[in-house]
């Protein structure tokens, strides 16, 4: 409470230099992260909670990150829609500016920030509290574990400060992913250039020519060179990264999703030196790896091959650990929907399991190469799932409980091992024919494909047709319809 009374705060802050590249060569290759003391973080959190309540009223709808009630994926979807068919020939030449701001957090002018807060109508005392939090800090740099220097800051917002993400919204659209679109002509691009220069002179935020890109569509070579010289940007090509996702002009391909797989692999390699328990690996998969997939899935329909590759990678990490961890190779036991007990699983699954026997009457299992169906648990045999009729079948036939049908086949012919139990001989008497191709499941219909009408009739309580209803619905006058229906339901009593 002393801070809110006197407006004075402890000045010292330690700044850690975190490298942004694998081999840093200059100070620009490091990201300074401030290690604020606990008292400061409490005060900063109180102030930012007050700011957060009104952010939705002050910040433009084009900014969706860090705003309660808004989704950053909305910007990705909008940008994706703008780039749909971007390279079509019938459209006039145009270009997109993907602007990267150099040291966006560290170069914000304090005077510009405080002037913006005053224009938004914040109370003077509240602005003084924020000013004290931002301007009073003196820094010491931590290098190789040692603290060096003690100097005052002149501008910038501290990364690691709870208040910085909200304050940057008042003068930044996006720190790394500002996207501007215009016609591919010198006049439009020069207008953007002047606007960026004015913004830089007021806020202290300058564009980074090495990371900023200009993406053309149907622009001549000479025009491209002229526009690139006007802006000083690099020429970019689709797909380009925007808010962590690729911007593409066509359907998402497996090649476009390679950054997602590479990011998952890099996260896993970062854990190779840590001996994580099974529970620790589960938590990291849920909180880190799955969240990466969910973020991509909010904007795209991921290709099936990418999903299978992610499942394979995550499953390897979960059950085997990393290549150097030495964890045992364990996995969950396979389970068939046809033989699992009805009291297992959640309520929805239990209700579905009660209908499986009704569904089975309309499903046909066709045995092909025998590599897909479980020998004992799937209902490929006329007797149904064999494990329910012959619980000791695997022992009596020298097969495994989770073996596929292929273990009792050879050259597309049945080849059962010697059966030691006479009760199991019934299996070999009713074997279905083996068809060409792979194992497949078909719906008992004219073309073998599933259709909702037959499924609806299957689960609907059966009823036979009635001549009374046929006659009643054939009448033209609605009033005449009432009498036969009332008679049928016993509403009219005849005396005589």
TrEMBL record:
Domain Reverse transcriptase residue range list: 1-247
Residue runs in coiled coils: none
Signal peptide (from-to): none
Source organism superkingdom: Eukaryota
Alphabetized PANTHER family for the sequence: OS12G0587133 PROTEIN, REVERSE TRANSCRIPTASE ZINC-BINDING DOMAIN-CONTAINING PROTEIN-RELATED-RELATED
Protein name (record): Retrovirus-related Pol polyprotein from type-2 retrotransposable element R2DM
């Amino acid at each position: 409470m002393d801070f809110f009374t006197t407006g004075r705060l402890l000045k010292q802050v330690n700044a850690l230099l975190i490298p942004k590249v694998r081999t840093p060569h200059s100070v620009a290759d490091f990201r300074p992260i401030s290690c604020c003391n606990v008292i400061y973080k409490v005060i900063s959190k109180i102030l930012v909670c007050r700011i957060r309540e009104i952010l939705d009223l002050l910040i433009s709808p084009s900014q969706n990150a860090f705003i309660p009630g808004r989704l950053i994926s909305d910007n990705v979807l909008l940008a994706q829609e703008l780039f749909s068919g971007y390279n079509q020939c019938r459209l006039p030449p145009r270009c997109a500016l993907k602007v990267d701001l150099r040291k966006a957090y560290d170069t914000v002018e304090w005077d510009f920030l405080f002037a913006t807060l005053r224009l938004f109508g914040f109370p003077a005392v509240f602005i003084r509290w924020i000013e004290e939090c931002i301007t009073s800090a003196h820094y010491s740099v931590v290098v190789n574990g040692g603290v060096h220097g003690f100097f005052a800051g002149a501008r910038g917002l501290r990364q690691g400060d709870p208040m910085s993400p909200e304050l940057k919204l008042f003068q930044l659209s996006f720190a790394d992913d500002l996207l501007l679109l215009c016609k591919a002509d010198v006049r439009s691009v020069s207008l953007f250039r002047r606007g960026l220069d004015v913004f830089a002179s007021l806020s202290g935020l300058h564009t980074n020519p090495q990371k900023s890109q200009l993406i053309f569509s149907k622009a001549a070579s000479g025009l491209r060179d002229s526009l690139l010289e006007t802006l000083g940007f690099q020429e970019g090509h689709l797909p380009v990264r925007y808010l962590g996702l690729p911007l593409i002009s066509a359907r998402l391909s497996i090649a476009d999703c390679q950054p997602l797989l590479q990011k998952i692999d890099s996260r896993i390699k970062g854990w190779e030196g840590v001996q994580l328990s099974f529970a620790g690996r589960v938590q990291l998969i849920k909180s880190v790896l799955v969240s990466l997939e969910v973020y991509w899935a909010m904007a795209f329909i991921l290709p099936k091959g990418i999903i299978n590759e992610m499942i394979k990678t995550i499953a390897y990490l979960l059950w085997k650990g990393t290549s150097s961890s030495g964890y045992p190779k364990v996995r969950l036991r396979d389970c068939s929907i046809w033989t699992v007990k009805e009291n297992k699983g959640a309520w929805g699954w239990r209700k579905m399991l009660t209908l499986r026997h009704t569904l089975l009457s309309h499903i046909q299992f066709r045995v092909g190469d025998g590599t897909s169906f479980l020998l004992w648990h799937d209902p490929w045999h006329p007797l149904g799932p064999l494990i329910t009729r012959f619980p000791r079948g695997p022992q009596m036939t020298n097969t495994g409980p989770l073996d596929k049908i292929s273990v009792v086949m050879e050259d597309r012919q049945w080849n059962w091992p010697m059966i030691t139990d006479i009760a199991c001989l019934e299996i070999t008497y009713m074997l279905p024919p083996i068809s060409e191709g792979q194992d497949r499941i078909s719906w008992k219909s004219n073309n073998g494909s599933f259709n909702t009408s037959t499924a609806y009739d299957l689960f609907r309580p059966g009823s036979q047709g009635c001549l009374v209803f046929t006659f009643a619905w054939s009448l033209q006058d609605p009033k005449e319809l009432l009498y036969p229906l009332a008679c049928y339901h016993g509403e009219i009593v005849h005396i005589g």
